[in-house]
Design brief:
- The structure is a single chain.
- By secondary structure, the protein is mainly beta.
- The chain has two domains: 50 residues, no CATH class; 71 residues, 3-Layer(aba) Sandwich (Rossmann fold).
- 11% of the residues lie in helices and 39% in strands.
- Strands 6-9-11-12 form a four-stranded mixed sheet, with no helix packed on it.
- The longest helix is centred in the middle third of the chain and has 8 residues.
- The radius of gyration is 15 Å and the shape is globular.
- The relative contact order is 0.17.
Length: 122
């Protein structure tokens, strides 16, 4: 992440922090103190909150129309509902791209995805 920032490819970098049932993003750099949460995940200290322009979204599976199967916590679904202008890019292994997935009312289709074969937009 620091290398991309040094090359001017990205501006501020942020990492998520879980706050109750919500997710917030805080600026991250090499001096940011990282803390372990109740789930054993490492999060940035709650110092400078921002709303990202682009969000990398982990996917268990994804279909070509951008419907995503997540990890079941609903954190990304809730965040994206409250921040509809954030551009989304799913991260997954190519083998987990599929023809179709069920889409629920709260689901938002992702704008693009990255696999080991490259970047794809829907």
């Amino acid at each position: 992440m620091q290398k991309m920032q040094a090359q001017g490819l990205v501006g501020l970098l942020a990492l998520p922090r879980l706050c109750d049932q919500e997710m917030q993003f805080f600026v991250w750099d090499s001096t940011t103190v990282m803390e372990q949460n109740a789930y054993g995940l490492t999060e940035p200290e709650a110092k400078r909150e921002i709303e990202p322009d682009l969000l990398l979204v982990p996917c268990v599976a994804l279909c070509h129309d951008g419907v995503r199967l997540g990890y079941g916590g609903g954190y990304f679904d809730r965040y994206l509902k409250q921040h509809p202008r954030v551009r989304t890019v799913g991260i997954l292994v190519e083998a987990f791209l599929c023809e179709s997935l069920p889409m629920e009312v709260h689901d938002r289709q992702l704008d693009a995805w990255i696999t080991e074969k490259g970047l794809f937009e829907r």
